[in-house]
Amino acid sequence: MSEPVLRVKDLRTEFAVRAGIVKAVDGVTFEVGRGRILGLVGESGSGKSVTGYSILGLIELPGRIAGGEVLLNGVDLTKLKGEQIRRVRGAQIAMVFQDPMMTLNPVLKVSTQMIAAVRAHDNVSRKVARSRARDALATVGIPSPEERLDAYPHQLSGGMRQRVAIAIALLHKPAVIIADEPTTALDVSIQGQILAEVRRLADETGTAFVWVTHDLAVVSSLADDICVMYAGRVVETGAAADVIASPRHPYTAGLLASVPAEHEPGERLPQVPGSAPSLANLPPGCAFAPRCFKAGPACNTTPPVQHFEDGRTALCHYPIEPDSCQPLSSTSTTYQNAS
């Protein structure tokens, strides 16, 4: 694996609400190498999107980053404030949102917005900025990019708008792009086209992607590595192919079992029983235990991180252990349950 360009270490993000302190991100740790795509997977409310916003320092009151490090090429982004972090966003690390209209101003032409994005970080002429914008549109597979520059967002299809949003993120050739479920609202054929373009961009430009999604089918075809989240915590990590083929954590196994493509048409889909707990009132010990088919007496205590021979990890007292991969060691966690 290539040298990591992004290292997230023990990241913790809290929100102060009437019920108390909600730990939306609780000790998240992962890393992404140059040209690699990390799939950050989990149900709604698992903390994956908040993790993405935390990496870019986009958490506002009543939220705050309570601890941990976000190292971008060795620089801790959590220590940067004001103009310092604004110089980094867009230039060295960028974000693609689920709704491209969060990125695009509906009353301004695409060219106006992309030129402004270029000149926000580089002191170049409008002509040079427009040329870079046109090249970026071509890079993400938009036909007739010169014409698209003079269009307004409402004149473009949803898939085309999302490509423009990705092109804006690529303008300064950032080291990392955080993509927050950017294809969720698109039809399957357009989604497939964008995923293929993202895979190509990662391979050709060396940009690393953190792809936030709840869709394991997307991750299986796109990501190099997977980081599964539940109730604000990372419960399993590993190479995408290994995790998909043989999950170690019962939650990951439950998610994979419910993928429609794995079942015959009309067949009733299995599902993980119950629902995700409130982050303001987590059960003691393992947050997944009330829904887990492998839960045992030890699950009332904080689960350890199990380390496996193939470099994978699982936050579980009773991980699923194929004979070919027994746990090497376990590391105690320092999570504090909200109650």
TrEMBL record:
Keyword Membrane belongs to the record: yes
GO molecular function, one term: ATP binding
ABC transporter domain segment(s): 6-256
Top-level taxon in the UniProt lineage: Bacteria
Membrane topology: Peripheral membrane protein
Gene3D superfamilies: P-loop containing nucleotide triphosphate hydrolases (3.40.50.300)
Keyword Membrane among UniProt keywords: yes
Keywords: ATP-binding, Cell membrane, Membrane, Nucleotide-binding, Transport
GO biological process, one term: transmembrane transport
One of the record's GO cellular component terms: plasma membrane
Compartments in which it is found: Cell inner membrane
Entries under InterPro entries matching the protein: AAA+_ATPase, ABC_Ni/Peptide_Import, ABC_transporter-like_ATP-bd, ABC_transporter-like_CS, Oligopep_ABC_C, P-loop_NTPase
Pfam family, one: oligo_HPY
Main location class: membrane
Family: Belongs to the ABC transporter superfamily.
PANTHER family the record matches: DIPEPTIDE TRANSPORT ATP-BINDING PROTEIN DPPD, OLIGOPEPTIDE TRANSPORT ATP-BINDING PROTEIN APPD
Official protein name in the record: ABC transporter ATP-binding protein
Source species: Microvirga brassicacearum
